[in-house]
Structures are given as C-alpha cells and as structure tokens.
Amino acid sequence: MTEKDTPEPAPRKRADARRNEQTLLDAAAAAFVESGVGVPVRDIAARAGVGVGTIYRHFPTRADLIVAVYRHQVEACAEAGPALLAEGPTPHAALTRWIDLFVDFLVTKHGLAEALQSDNAAFESLHTYFIDRLLPVCTELLDAAVDAGEVVSDIEPYELMRGVGNLCVGAEGDPRYHARRMVGLLIRGLRTH
C-alpha cells in the first residue's frame, strides 16, 4: 500500500455541528416517546429549532435517525454511571440514580420498540451494543455498592438490568401501573439489612 492509497481520516465535526446533532437527537428521542417513531420529521425539526433539511443532512433515512437516537441514549446512560459514582454520596445512591436514568432510557427504548423489532438490517446490532455498553457500567456500580456493604452480593448485573427492564415493559399503556415505583421497590430490596 502506497502513501497515496492510505485513506484520509474522516474530518472531525465542528463543535457547533456536534451540538446541532445532539439537539436533534434529544428532540427526536422526546418526540419518539411522545408520539412514536412515526412522528413527522417536520415535528422533530420544529422541536429542535432547525429546518427539515438539517435533519436529512445528518440522518438521510428514518432508520438512520432511529439508530442514532438509540445509540445516543445508550451513550448518555453509559457515561452517567462513572460520573454518578464519583459524585456519591454513596455507591448505593449512585446505583439508584443510575437505575433511574436507565428507566428513562427504557421508556425511550420502548418508544422505539416497534421499529427495533422490524426486519430492517440497520437495527440488528443494537441489542448487542446496548448490552456491551451498559452491562459494564451496571457491573461497576453494583460492585461498588456490594464492596461498600450497602447491597446484597447475590445479584448479577445482568439480572438487575433484566429485572428493571421487565418492570418497565408495558408501563406506558396502563395508567394504574407505575414502573418507576416498582423499580424503586426492587432497588430498596437490594439493601443489606
């Protein structure tokens, strides 16, 4: 391979372009939760304060937008874990706050569920991405809380994430069911006595 054949690195996005993309992703996530993934692109653009063309410049297809929203939500949740642990005041408090963010993410994820369950090839790797990014964060938080003697040691991080996820399923369709309250009971039940 000659120097001429070496591919040029992709240009880095300007800070304002990255901010615009983050604003679009936040607006799309909120719109998906509120109105489903079929929400008109013009509604997302209005919520983000941009033109429709800006959305299509960043995300040429609806599938591109859905994948980007999902990844954006996963990354926000993953990045929050270590920050919450550093903030304290205790590992259990950090775990509790992270689980609360995880529940927020799951609400968005369930808003995307219909699209994610389609046979669109763009969505195939998202579940693996979700587990690969969030399971280590949950493990770190849970291990810290166990090491501090704040929670029982006989629960696996995957079990905890799966349990929280199952408590959130269908919550949006039943006004008498409060998933966040049930998740709170689960988290309190982890405490050592």
Automatic annotation (TrEMBL):
InterPro entries: Homeodomain-like_sf, HTH-type_TetR-like_transc_reg, HTH_TetR, Tet_transcr_reg_TetR-rel_C_sf, TetR_SbtR-like_C
DNA-binding region(s), residue ranges: 40-59
Domain spans labelled HTH tetR-type: 18-77
Record-linked PANTHER family: HTH-TYPE TRANSCRIPTIONAL REGULATOR BETI, HTH-TYPE TRANSCRIPTIONAL REGULATOR RUTR
PROSITE patterns: HTH_TETR_2
UniProt keyword Metal-binding, yes or no: no
Keyword terms of this UniProt record: DNA-binding, Transcription, Transcription regulation
Entry annotated with the keyword 4Fe-4S: no
UniProt-listed Pfam families: TetR_C_43 (PF21597), TetR_N (PF00440)
Protein name as annotated: TetR/AcrR family transcriptional regulator
Taxonomy of the source species: Bacteria, Bacillati, Actinomycetota, Actinomycetes, Mycobacteriales
Molecular function via GO: DNA-binding transcription factor activity; transcription cis-regulatory region binding
